[in-house]
């Protein structure tokens, strides 16, 4: 699977101590979204943290933990989900060339750091055919689901291979919130022992909250 993309729309810290402290919850988030059930962490880490709209010229390696300081600033600090989606669509070919996903991606925001959740987004693909028999392809539409960190990888993986539909993960009766985000309603992740062990090591080292 191609490496996955994380956007980080966090406001720049107004105080140096806040900047230093931010790396702790960020390390926790980046650890908990790893694939501990089917992958060999950290050898097979697949997440890349993107904080700049300026993409690298070569394929980046997965973000390694622990990170010792949070980004001083991020181009996505005040970006809405629509603005992040617009960026993903504009950079679709570049992301593909860098082996980064563009159809599915994850947003880590301050609300998510506080609640141990992230936003899993999926681009809507329109299978309607034009007069030449070609599908219309990716659209500008996307649903987003606020899911527990531990469930992000399995949801991303299943969406990526079309093994499950987005609707199977969300509470359709509850519907979307005021920001158009769906609520998570399913639990698939089972591997917790190894995840808890690594998280404890990060906490003992002062790298995680």
Task: Give the N-to-C terminal Cα separation.
Answer: 30 Å
- Class of secondary structure makeup: alpha/beta
Global morphology: globular
- Widest β-sheet, arrangement of strands: 2-1-3-4-7-8
In percent, how helical is the residue content? 25-40%
Major sheet summary line: 6 strands, mixed
Low-confidence stretches: 10-20
Strand content: 15-25%
Q: In DSSP terms, counting alpha (H) and pi (I) runs of 4 or more, how many helices? A: 6
Quaternary state of this entry equals single chain
Average of the residue pLDDT scores: 83
Q: How do the SSEs run, as a string of H and E?
A: EHEHHEHEEEEHEH
- According to DSSP, the number of beta strands is 8
- Please state the CA-atom Rg, rounded to the nearest Å: 17 Å
Q: How many domains make up the coordinates?
A: 1
Outline the structure in words:
The chain is 30% helix and 17% strand. Strand 5 and strand 6 form a beta hairpin. The longest helix has 17 residues. It has six helices and eight strands. The protein is globular and about 60 Å long. It starts with a strand and ends in a 5-residue tail after the last helix. The chain has one domain. It comes from Roridomyces roridus. This is DUF6924 domain-containing protein.
């Amino acid at each position: 699977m191609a490496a996955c993309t994380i956007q980080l729309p966090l406001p720049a810290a107004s105080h140096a101590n806040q900047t230093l402290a931010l790396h702790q919850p960020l390390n926790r988030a980046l650890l908990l979204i790893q694939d501990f059930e089917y992958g060999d962490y950290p050898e097979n880490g697949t997440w890349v943290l993107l904080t700049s709209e300026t993409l690298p010229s070569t394929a980046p390696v997965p973000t390694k933990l622990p990170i010792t300081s949070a980004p001083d600033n991020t181009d996505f600090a005040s970006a809405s989900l629509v603005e992040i989606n617009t960026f993903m669509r504009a950079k679709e070919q570049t992301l593909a060339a860098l082996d980064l996903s563009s159809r599915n991606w994850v947003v880590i925001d301050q609300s998510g750091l506080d609640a141990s959740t992230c936003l899993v987004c999926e681009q809507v693909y329109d299978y309607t055919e034009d007069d030449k028999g070609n599908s219309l392809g990716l659209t500008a539409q996307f649903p987003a689901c606020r899911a527990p960190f531990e469930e992000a990888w399995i949801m991303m993986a299943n969406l990526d291979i079309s093994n499950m539909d987005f609707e199977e993960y969300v509470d359709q009766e509850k519907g979307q919130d005021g920001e158009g985000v769906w609520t998570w309603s399913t639990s698939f992740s089972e591997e917790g022992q190894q995840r808890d062990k690594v998280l404890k090591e990060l906490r003992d080292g002062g790298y995680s909250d």
